[in-house]
Amino acid sequence: MDKFVLNIIHRPEMVPEYAEKLTGHGKEEDIGRKSLLTESLDIFKLQQETAHRNGLKTTIQMTYASLFNEEAIALAKEHHEKYGDEIALSLLGLPCKEFREKYKTKDFCIWMFSMEDKKSIVDDVFGKFHDIFGFYPESTGSYYMDADLVNYIKETYPSVKCAVATCWEEGPKAYHTCNNSWYTFMDGGPWAPWIPSKANVHAPAADEKEDAGIVAIPHLSRDLLACYDGNGSNFGTHPQNVLRGMIYDSKTWEYPYLYNLIDQYRSLEKYNNGYAYNMMFVGPGWLNKMGRWEAPFELLKKSYEDGMAYYGQLKKEGKLTDMTMAEFADYYRGKKTYTEPECALWRDILYGSDKQLFWYCDPYMRVCVNMDQGGAIVDLRPYAAKLEWKVGIGTPHVTDASYPFLIQEKYRAGYFTHYAGEGTIKSAKLTYKGEEVDLCLCRTKAAFSEELIEGGRKKRILTLEPVDIVFSDLTVKLQTRIIFEEGSSQLGVERRILSMSNPEAEVELNEYMVACYGTTEYAEDMSSLTLGCQKGGEQKEIAYAYKCREEELVDADEVYCVLPPIKTRVAMSADKAGAKGYVKEGYAFSPMFTLGYTTTLSDKEVFTTWLSLEREN
After folding, report:
1. What are phi and psi of 74, to 5 degrees?
2. pTM confidence score
3. pLDDT tens for residues 190-234?
4. Residues ≥6 apart with Cβ < 8 Å to 582
């Protein structure tokens, strides 16, 4: 039976983000101000009442501040008994007078503290929770939780089985739309629940040995297209995000986009064995009595009530199952295997275009395919490396928790680039009599399918609608399939010529990947990289030195690049005799590298290349 699972998470955040300045009306900062605490608790009550009125259970994530408030504690106990709500523990909501007096800091993001302070804070918060409720929580969370933090919590408090662990695509785009003031970068993680690895929370575990012991859920369910192209904070099933994005009718206060977004999440069961997930996680600060952004409190309240009513109606119709976080962790463990991927064929529901993206995530890679660019790969994260990436004070990454990319069109240009240099992308070019066409210029659509392979595993196949490539005296109809084999750290790209206006003609096909590494727009030092072509015992290598050098080998077994800074080895191979493998070194103005194969194709011929990822050492 198809299942659409919903997590509703509320937190009695006694000092909500942003709210102190609004409630204080310009007075000197006082996070213990009684009016602030009273208003926050009133909003929490409103949220709880709204969920229960619609027949929905919640997970109550107690904050550190709320553990000092008797009314918040009593409400949590009452709602646990009466409605079956889970009493959990959030690592958001740390700021309060008691916290600041003890830790002498205004920091509030748990992953940004030193490891010594992380442990101290966790022990403090978990200990106080146990003192009050008589048990340790089964769920916790934050905007982001780094691997060291998750591992410590699981080892010390083994009851924890579920955690809010990252916020999808909260990187430079979010930073720029916060006036360059939101110093938390966490791009590159899954958009849907996953079992994180012990080495890196973003990267799903490949087996029991890598399993960090929890089920992770994202902080907010985002629009997988609008969020990727723009600021994710405006596009999510968080109703107040939709208001912040001004995606509503200002006269009628209606927001069909919110319901369309929820429905598109429901549709993901088509690609994930009859299972789809959504979450609603709105802190009290978003329902501030003074309003938020340009929206008055009345609209904030209406949007929340309408969103909850929609979920409630879906539940009444038997189309939705509400679970607590702990219940969901048990369900997920029974539903998903380690190697089973998460897939999302996502279409534009906001701007009126026909654009599609396909997202794929498994323990070895996260991939985004853009049908508006002919099925080019526009985002690639090498999870196979299981890159250890320590975060917080005292580490090399105080603020940047992102999982590095090899390809990222938004931060490293993609196909549509400056007149000089190249951007990161994986695509193909066809050449005939000196004319060249890149498939990035050929818009198309995609269909998703599955095939069973040995061991009960599956292939997930993205089949693109054929495109016509028009040269001055030849038209070529070409179809692309992208093949993801479960349990494998490689993906296949198949180019098939369906017809030619001149069946006797031959075209050259250049399957290429332009890549680099990084987490932001800014170039990293590429001088430790090694490029190579390999055929049997023959090997040609380039130690990257920004010199524009190239190497090639006909019938190369593989072409590759080794990237020690992110412990990654990326390679391409081809299945056609006579195909020429090549590598290209970039230069300082265009600090990329290129892997590729060229071959000639005739009518009805097929050329398949394989992209593989490994940990470098």
Report:
1. -65, -40
2. 0.95
3. 999 999 999 999 999 999 999 999 999 999 999 999 999 988 888
4. 533, 550, 551, 552, 553, 559, 594, 595, 596, 597, 598
